[in-house]
Structures are given as structure tokens and as C-alpha cells.
Amino acid sequence: MVILGNLSERIPPQNLEAERSVLGGILLENSSINAVIEVLRGEDFYKRAHRIIFSKMIELDGKGEPIDLVSLKEALKKSNQLDEAGGITYLSSLLEAVPTTSNISYYSKLVKEKSLARELLSSATDVVKQCYEGGRDAEELLNLAEKSIYDISQKSISKGPVHLKEIIHESLETIDNIYKNKGLMMGIETGFTDFDHKTLGLQRSDLIIIAGRPSMGKTAFCLNIAAHVAIEKRLPVAVFSLEMSAEQLVFRMLCSESRVDAHKLRTGILENKFYSKLPIAAGKLSEAPIYIDDSPAISILEMRAKARKLKSSNGLALLIIDYLQLMRGGGRFENRQ
């Protein structure tokens, strides 16, 4: 294994020319700051002088004052930051950095990319440091690394405002579809009519907790929903079973789908007319997009990774966990927390 040398001696990712072009563009055309603010924050600039200048520009814009050499110089003077910003000579040079403001959004994205690269490098360095220092188990370090990268990735997501007319057409189509098909669910039907009427079906991003005393049928209820969604709707379903084995779950699903008494099947006193139903039910279930993972004491980190993999490879309409309190929490947290 090759370990890189001292990273602190290397220059972090940055694009000073793009930073100067962004600041110069704002000086040339004040209104262009709106496009920049959508992409950048003060800390995205690598050079300290640029961070100071950009912060003052935002401050001036917030007050409704013009952003030019005179107002910027005065604002920096008042806060005793003119020298830190490079002085009036450096401020003047920013105007020469960009001939036009038409590409300011592009320059802003270049600055943002370098900022994200620096954040990623910083997070990775921190994880490496903690790996060497010890004190945390491997799972905790993996969770830390994944969270750091996820947090950074979220910063690059900026949808921006969407005009209502871009959304309303889709909403009208949904309403029209419901009107033409009386009783049609907006979400995924579970097969339980009363439940579907209450929830309007399973909606995207819904979190539904099935609670009840032991042996009240919580698992059976969830398995029936899984079978209905996968068999009738042909939508992919994942079941994480932390208590029962995959074989036990399939046994239950076979009995439910074939309407066979599970007790009679276990004792071997099943009549032939019922026994013949099992292969038919088995055929339906084997063709259904149901994925079962019966890893015991699985952690949140492992489950999330497996769910993401399933989602990317097969798609995923429904995820069932049986049951939540058997999951292992990450790091020092108790399972129930």
C-alpha cells in the first residue's frame, strides 16, 4: 500500500482566475450578483482577500447600495479590512479580470467545483487522521466518511425556484386520471382497502410505522402488503428481516398466497386439494420482484448501503424492515435511540 506524502505541503484545489472574474463581473454589472449568490457563498472563495471582498459586496447589495470601487473601498475601510482585501490597487485590477459578465455563472461554477474539492479533501484527510489515531471502530469511521461525503454532495444540489406552470400540468394529469378512474389511488395500493382509503396508498418518501403487541400479526400484515405490491403491481420490494430467516418468511408468504393453513402444513396433515395450491403460489412469488435480506443485527449503515444498491440496480418502490428495534445503531448510540 502506498500512502501519499504530507498533503499539507501541497496547494489545495483552487482557481484564482475564476474567483477574480466573478468579483470583477459583479463590479461591472451589479445585478449579476444574483446569479452568483445562487451558486456561491463567501467560504467558497479560496483566497482570503476574495472572501472579504465578496462578503462586503453581499452586504452592500443587502443595503440596496451600489457595488463599485468607491462604495466597496469605503465599506472595507469602515471595517478596517481594506489592506486585507489587497487595497485599492487590487480592487481596481478586478475590473480588468473579466471583459464581460455574460460568463459569470460559468465562472461561479468553476469556483464552486474547487470549493467542493477542497471540502472533500479536508473530510478525507480528517477520516485518514482518525483511522491512524484509533479510538473509533471501523463501522463508526465508515459512517463518518459516508456522512461527510453525503453532506458535501448536498451542497452541490441547487434546484432553484420552479414556475408553477411547470408543476401544475403534472398535477392536473393526476387529478384527471383520478376523476376518470373513480377510486384510483394516488399512491401504491396495499391490498387492504380501509388502509388504502386512509392513506390514499403508499406515497413516495412515506415512513409508516406498524406498531402492536407481540404476536398480533405485524409481520404477516407487512408480508401481505409486500406480496400485493410485488405480484399485483409488479413493483420491486425489499424486505429486511432481522428476526426471522428468509426461509421462514417465504413459508409464511406461500401459506398466505395459497390460502393454506400454516399449522396444518407444518404438521403434515394438509389435504391434497390444498397441497396442490402451493406450486401455483410458489410460481407467482418466484416471478415477483421481492428481495429478502435476513442478515441478523444489521446496522443502519449496512442496510442503507444495500438499499441504495438495490435501488440503483433494480429500482425500489417499497422497503420493509422487520423490525426496527433489532437494528444496530452506529457508533456509541444504543439501538433504541
CATH topology of the largest domain, which one? Answer: DNAb Helicase, Chain A
Taking pLDDT < 50 over at least 5 consecutive residues as the criterion, the unreliable ranges are: 331-337
The largest sheet is: 3 strands, parallel
Question: In CATH, what is the homologous superfamily of the largest domain?
Answer: DNAb Helicase, Chain A
Q: How far is it from the N-terminal to the C-terminal residue, by CA?
A: 38 Å
**Residues in helices, as a percent range:** 55-70%
GO cellular component, one term: primosome complex
Keywords: ATP-binding, DNA replication, DNA-binding, Helicase, Hydrolase, Isomerase, Nucleotide-binding, Primosome
Domain SF4 helicase: 181-337
Protein name: DNA 5'-3' helicase
